[in-house]
Write a structure and sequence with these properties.
The protein is α/β, with parallel strands linked by helices. The protein has one domain (about 1-240): Purple Acid Phosphatase, chain A, domain 2. It is about 25% helix and about 25% strand. The protein has 6 helices and 13 strands. The strands form 3 sheets. A 6-stranded mixed sheet has the order 4-5-6-7-9-8. Strands 3-2-1-12-13 form a 5-stranded mixed sheet, with no helix packed on it. A two-stranded antiparallel ribbon has the order 10-11. A hairpin with a 2-residue loop joins strand 12 (about 225-230) and strand 13. Helix 2 runs parallel beside helix 3 (about 80-85). It binds fe (ii) ion (FE2) (2 copies). One fe (ii) ion binds near residues 75, 76 and 145. One fe (ii) ion binds near residues 45, 75 and 145.
Length: about 240
Amino acid sequence: MTALFAQISDLHLDGTVRATDRARRVVGYLNGLARPVDAVLVTGDIADHGTEAEYEEAARLFATMSVPVLPCPGNHDVRGPYRKALLDEEPVGGPINRRHRVAGVTVLLVDGTVPAQGHGYVDDETIAWLEEQLRDPSPTLIALHHPPVRIHEPSLDKILLHSPDRLEALVAAHPQVIAVLTGHAHTAAASTFAGRPLVIAPAVTYALRMPWEGGDIRNWDQPPGVAFHVIDDSRIITHFRVA
Ligand SMILES: [Fe+2]
Ligand SMILES: [Fe+2]
């Protein structure tokens, strides 16, 4: 079994030409691939302010893609308008957790956001949902917005996933979890979590400058990024690209 996923993150659509252009560039790049990916995962901060207009733009953009687009929310997203415009659902309810089956891989899209807060937290309802989903022993990817490990950029390290211990224990107890995929950090990065690969996708919007690079924390010069994940049985290999 070989599955190919693209992961994009942190579009921060805000109605500006700059944000729209970067998002369109990524979508155009993905639509032009010689071999279409099996699905595009979008790991949150789709909208910048969480307005209906921002999600309507996202929905129009995603509709131009020829493959399934599977999102999870980030701290800039607002559940009500997100549900309405992206999922065509009533704009009420708690965490937006979703399970998809793509090319033999189970994809768990986890809502680790805390309404109106910058940091993340996987609440009781979501932990219970994950426990239920992980009864299925087939190869599984877990995607959520906030990284559960330090990035080593001080302002970002304050708003990561808080109390990741329960998620860590769940991943550790379930060998079918191939990797954990996140966004939020606006930098392409790799680590481990519960002994599994942890991949942080680059942002579609500005990139993060790390302290050792100097200069403004927001790097608008770097082109929008994409991560490609190839899943070969139980192994992941990630290729990073700019669009
Ligand atoms: Fe972001
Ligand atoms: Fe974020």
